[in-house]
Amino acid sequence: MDLRSATMRGVQSLAEAGIAHVPAQYIQPPQTRIGFSLVKHNNIDIPTIDLDPSQSKQLVREAIGSACRDWGAFHVINHGVPIPLLDEMRSAGLSFFERCSTQDKLCYACDPNLAATEGYGSKMLQSTDTAVLDWRDYFDHHTLPLARRNPSRWPHFPPSYRHVVSEYSDHMKLLADKLLAIISESLGLPSYVIGDAVGEFYQNITVSYYPPCPQPDITLGLQSHSDMGAITLLIQDHVEGLQVFKDGQWITVLPSPHAILVILADQTEIITNGKYKSAQHRAITNASRARLSVATFHDPAKTAKISPARELVNESSPARYREVIYGDYVTSWYTKGPEGKQNMDALLLKC
Ligand SMILES: O=C(O)CCC(=O)C(=O)O
Ligand SMILES: [Fe+2]
């Protein structure tokens, strides 16, 4: 197979072509390879917080407060989202990637020259780009506000696909609202403070598909980054691959099929004036099993001005970040690339 045309069709075609060596554009430099930094397996896991209404609200606030401070990411269980819906969402995504023909998938191809367009894609090398490519294909859906939601742009297969994504989107929004309220309260603020600072949610749902990779030691499924919006809700299948960076180590997030992973994103770090940090995370590859995740991003409008909440700024705790227009932040993220937390570092004020 012509490797160039296979690359245009995403990494799944490369994997299915049975290559033994990945094309050069997918090879990570030594410092971002998985062998470079410490990886802890299974002996520490990120916190799990039970949101069942029978739990003490005060204890839940405290548990969320420490998870946000220490990790920037945590699992929630008894979150109110029907478990069958989580399974339906994973299985709809998997059917698109594994049961649709390449030709069918390409009907939904997003414009590779534009950032964050809706549809099916894989990171492409731009002519000026020196970034290493991720071993990942994806389908991005624009789901909220409702005016952005156009299910006719989403896969027609399996037949339930469009209905499942719409229902999933609605449930994720409710959960994101609830979590931002508890996160505000965990800082001693009224429940509306962070939600009001973010404003109306712009929600995107990205299904990521990581085919088996013949050289997992020198590739990444998704390079290290923090999410740029306010809060991300993620589910994964039973295959390990997601890692969160904590205290100088990469920690694998063990799959937990009924749980939803909450990832604090950059705008929440700014609004909380750095009291809570966005989580740096990445996805690694493996040689034998495909992996699927579904990330639901909740972002401010591009015109929203984001700055530390006034309630958290005072003489003893001055503002640590300058105000940013969210759209400018997104542009800089796509221009400089997501690597690590470099985009947040650019907003830090010298206190
Ligand atoms: O696949 C994963 O688990 C991570 C996905 C992710 O971090 C993202 O889409 O921003
Ligand atoms: Fe992410």
Automatic annotation (TrEMBL):
PROSITE patterns: FE2OG_OXY. The keyword Oxidoreductase applies. Residues 200-300 form the Fe2OG dioxygenase domain. GO terms for molecular function: L-ascorbic acid binding; metal ion binding; oxidoreductase activity. The keyword Iron applies. Belongs to the iron/ascorbate-dependent oxidoreductase family. This is 2OG-FeII_Oxy domain-containing protein/DIOX_N domain-containing protein. It comes from Cephalotus follicularis (Albany pitcher plant).
